[in-house]
């Protein structure tokens, strides 16, 4: 196995595990959110994580499982996130997404041709999350989820044909 192949397979596995973690995190944040509008948005973001994870599933070894250690950390991170205002949460989100965007750009660059569509969705889902947070911070809550919903639709379509 070449270095790129190993890096790619490890990266896909980590991304898939991250989508499971992200879904759990966002669902728990939604549960703890009192504002109904914000809660609904967290729930849509959880759907994005789920749809992206499902699209990645065919690229992951059948024996793969979500990282149990990561799940133990979800509640701690949720507790910290729950203390933030909406604007602070959006600010933090934009900051946290940049390293993932860079990782997924690298995965896209080394992905085999048959995986390009799914890995593009992986990258686009992260870009959609960032766009969402930026639109929220810019005072545009009406269209902030548009790119998120578009990626959910693409990811679900890819998963349905897999």
Task: Offer a quick outline of the entry.
With 162 residues, the protein is mainly alpha-helical.
Descriptive key words:
162 residues, mainly alpha, Ferritin, 6 helices, 80% helix, globular
Question: Could you characterize what this model shows?
Answer:
- The chain is mainly alpha-helical and 162 residues long.
- It has a single domain (3-161), classed as Up-down Bundle (Ferritin).
- Helices cover 80% and strands 0% of the residues.
- The chain has six helices and no strands.
- Helix 2 packs parallel to helix 6 (146-161) and helix 5 (116-137) packs antiparallel against helix 6 (146-161).
- The longest helix has 30 residues, at 3-32.
- The model has no long low-confidence stretch (mean pLDDT 92).
Poorly predicted residue ranges: none
* Tally of alpha and pi helices: 6
Whole-angstrom Rg: 16 Å
The oligomeric state is: single chain
N-to-C CA distance: 25 Å
What is the succession of H and E elements?
Answer: HHHHHH
Helical content class = over 70%
User: What would the principal axes of the Cα set say about the shape?
Assistant: globular
């Amino acid at each position: 196995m070449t270095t790129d192949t190993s890096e790619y397979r490890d990266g896909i596995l980590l991304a898939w595990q991250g989508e499971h973690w992200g879904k759990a995190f966002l669902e728990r944040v939604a549960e703890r959110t009192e504002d109904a509008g914000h809660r609904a948005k967290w729930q849509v973001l959880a759907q994005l994580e789920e749809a992206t994870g499902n699209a990645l599933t065919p690229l992951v070894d059948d024996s793969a499982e979500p990282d149990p250690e990561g799940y133990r950390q979800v509640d701690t991170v949720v507790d910290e996130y729950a203390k933030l205002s909406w604007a602070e949460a959006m600010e933090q989100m934009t900051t946290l997404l940049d390293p993932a965007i860079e990782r997924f750009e690298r995965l896209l660059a080394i992905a085999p041709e048959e995986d390009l569509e799914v890995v593009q969705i992986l990258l686009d889902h992260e870009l959609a999350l960032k766009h969402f947070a930026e639109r929220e911070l810019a005072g545009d809550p009406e269209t902030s989820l548009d790119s998120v919903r578009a990626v959910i639709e693409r990811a679900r379509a890819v998963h349905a044909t897999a």
